[in-house]
Structure formats: structure tokens, C-alpha cells
Amino acid sequence: MEQAPPSFTLQYSAVEALLAELHAISPTGRTALRARLKHLKRLGFPDGVNTGSGRPAGYGIGPLLSLLIAFDLLQLGLTPERAIGLLRSDGYVVVQAAGFCSRHLTRERTVDDKDDFYLAFDPTVLADLSNPGSSGELDDPVLRKVLCGASAYVLSEVGKGGRRWVILNLTHLIWEAAVRLELTGVTTIAAFADALLAWAASFDWRVADGIDPEA
Predict the structure, then answer these.
(1) Which domain of life is it from (predicted)?
(2) Do residues 150 and 100 make contact, with C-beta atoms less than 8 angstroms apart?
(3) pTM score > 0.85 for this model?
């Protein structure tokens, strides 16, 4: 996920403002937000952020989406290291979310949508003490308990077993981000959807990939 379509890039200031809006961070809380972003950057996340000496960071659609999902995971209590580890345990999660959710941005959202895109994981990943010494590395067995896909598929798999699951609705996350970007004049919902689909297509994403990974 190092490359993103060159037609879509957000500067750091726009990304910070978007995260502040999505998470209701007050102006006085921006310092903590910047510190968290810097910490993620030191950890090499998200991949593919265009930076250079004396230049502000530029976020393509892939890195932006990775960051949006990571912040939702941080809100749930994951450490930055484990949030990054969860996303990197299956690098195709973000690609699937981009492709699948791009289709929702071009039609009216309804409360009873049955084909939203879900990310589900065993909440054991929330507790560092359950796996001493783990820092979110790819060989962490806990981080392999991750599901993603259309809501019907994910809920079906969750129903097959497991004591507890945490589920994120990434369609709602991406929809809210797109709306806020349009309201602030950064981009249009249609342009955001096009960028999502183009980026996913660059990884040979297919609609079926986000419906049932075993199909």
C-alpha cells in the first residue's frame, strides 16, 4: 500500500482538521492530536506518506484511509503499535474497504443498509497483558483473529463461534469522512469515491473481494 493515485492528496493540515472533526476534538485538544500523529509517523505509519525536507506531509487516499481506521482503533483502546499491527496483519483490509465503500458514496445512504463493510476482531487485542511482550508484530497470533467484508459475511462468520468480537462499520466511517471533506470544500464526495475506487483497482480489487473472501 505504498502508492496512491497522484490525483488525490491531502496536506497535513487538512488531515488534522478531518480527524479533529470526526472525533470531536476541541481546539485545546489539537496538541494531543498532533502528538499522536507524530508518534504514528515515528512508527512508520501510515505507509506511503509523501514527505521531504522542508515539505509538509502529503496523504494519498490509501494512507489517509489507513489513518482514519487506525484512529478508530485507538479510540477503542488499542495502543498505536497494536492498531498498526492489526491493520498490517492483513494488508488487503484497507484496499477492500476503499473499493467496497466507494460504491456507497455514489448513492443515498440509508439506515437499514445490509451490505456495509465491516472490520471485526477478537477484543483480546485490546489487552496487552493477555499476550506479554507483544507489540503488534505480524507473528502475534491474536492479530490473526481478524475478519473483514460485507456485513452479511462478517456477521455470519462471527456467528460461527468466538466469545467476543469488536465490529467497526467502515462504510459509516468513510461516508462521514467524505461528507465532512465536501462540507469544508476540500473535495467532493464524487471525487473522493473516484479516488477510493481508483486506488483499490490499482491492487486488482474486485467487488467480490469485499463480499465473501472465500468465494
Answers:
(1) Bacteria
(2) yes
(3) no
Domain range annotation of the chain: 10-112+169-203
Summarize pLDDT for 98-146 with one digit per residue, the tens: 998 988 887 655 545 567 899 998 877 655 434 444 444 444 544 457 8
Which residues, in sequence order, are CB contacts of 208 under 8 Å at separation 6+?
215
Closest by CA position to 151, among listed 211, 66, 73, 213: 211
Quote the distance between the C-alpha of residue 120 and its chain's center: 12
Average model confidence (pLDDT) for the chain? 81
**Which stretch of DSSP H or E encloses residue 11?**
strand 10-11
The rounded distance, in Å, linking the Cα atoms of 161 and 60 is 37
Identify the H or E element spanning 152. Answer: helix 151-158
Task: Give the pLDDT of residue 185.
Answer: 94
Helices 61-75 and 189-201: crossing angle in degrees, nearest 10, is 100
Residue type, 120: A
Strand runs (DSSP E) across 45-193, as ranges?
A: 50-52, 55-59, 117-121, 146-150, 166-169
CA dist 11 and 14 (Å) reads: 6
The C-alpha atoms of residue 5 and residue 202 are separated, in whole angstroms, by 8
Grid coordinates representing 50?
509523501
Whole-angstrom Cα distance, residue 82 to residue 57?
A: 23
